[in-house]
Amino acid sequence: MSLQRALILMLLLFFIFISEMKESTAFPWGCSNYSGVCRPICLPAELTFGPFGCDKGFVCCVSHIL
């Protein structure tokens, strides 16, 4: 019985590790890497870079690209 519990615990930890790994590889960079600002809507003079590193409902707005 304790062997089954240990195997289930190891399997659960493995799945948690895999899910964390997928989340970190999805967006390895953030809005701050482009000197951007997270806003609901970008200003007319800014470029929209998508939701990289921003909360839900916000997009990364960049004023210039170097």
UniProtKB/TrEMBL annotation:
Keyword set, alphabetical order: Signal
Signal is among the record's keywords: yes
Keyword Signal: yes
Record's signal peptide: 1-26
Protein's name according to its UniProt entry: Beta-defensin
